[in-house]
């Protein structure tokens, strides 16, 4: 637990499931006021029932500048701004490179990279005005090295890493900006794309022989948002059970 997080205003995008949901739960447990943005209206309704401490759930497509602007206006009304942004919303589609249609490319890059830009811009304007803030982005080990069948996803996550580094330079020392790069995480999105057999094949390639749990990613977000990480900015931190350490 990080005592300095108590009372902080935290926004989590893609917070109705997977890593985002675990992160919303973690920050609520830290005593934060948490708002979740997600485009899945049904998941948001379930979230409100399961997380009564949630400050607000807002339906928004992060790839839409109009919806993002409206969401942050609602956040202003509810909390008067924010102290921490967890820009986490993302999608992936498993496809051969030559089979990726421009519409798929635009959709994946729209959510995974443009969405990071739009949400971070809204957050940064408010944080610069108040003189403090933390922006954290979910990248991926797929943004650090090549992975077949995910060209659009990989490109988007590589972009997230450099976007965070650039923002960190521009906003220091007022706003800290970092990205984290999870490896394989056992989320609903992962389970939808991989059969149990495929999941086990992946596990055998990871030094820890398992996927991460979403709560383990949430723990890193909490640390990076806290004053314990006060000198960390412009970093991309892998959290992958040793996956990118080298060949095994």
What does this structure look like?
This protein is α/β, with parallel strands linked by helices and 248 residues long. The chain has a single domain, classed as Rossmann fold (3-Layer(aba) Sandwich), CATH 3.40.50. It is built from eight helices and seven strands. The protein has helices at 18-29, 41-50, 65-79, 102-130, 151-171, 188-193, 196-203, 214-225, and strands at residues 9-13, 33-38, 56-59, 84-87, 133-138, 175-182, 236-239. Strands 3-2-1-4-5-6-7 form a seven-stranded parallel sheet, with helices on both faces. The termini are far apart. 43% of the residues are buried.
What coarse outline follows from CA principal-axis ratios?
A: globular
Helices and strands, in N-to-C order?
Answer: EHEHEHEHEHEHHHE
Q: Number of DSSP helices?
A: 8
CA radius of gyration: 17 Å
CATH topology: Rossmann fold
Question: What would you say about this model in short?
Answer:
This protein is of the alpha/beta class.
Break the fold down into its secondary structure elements and pairings.
Layout: E1 9-13, H1 18-29, E2 33-38, H2 41-50, E3 56-59, H3 65-79, E4 84-87, H4 102-130, E5 133-138, H5 151-171, E6 175-182, H6 188-193, H7 196-203, H8 214-225, E7 236-239
Helix pairs in contact: 1-8, 3-4, 4-5
Question: Key features?
Answer:
46% helix, alpha/beta, seven-stranded parallel β-sheet, 8 helices, Rossmann fold, 248 residues
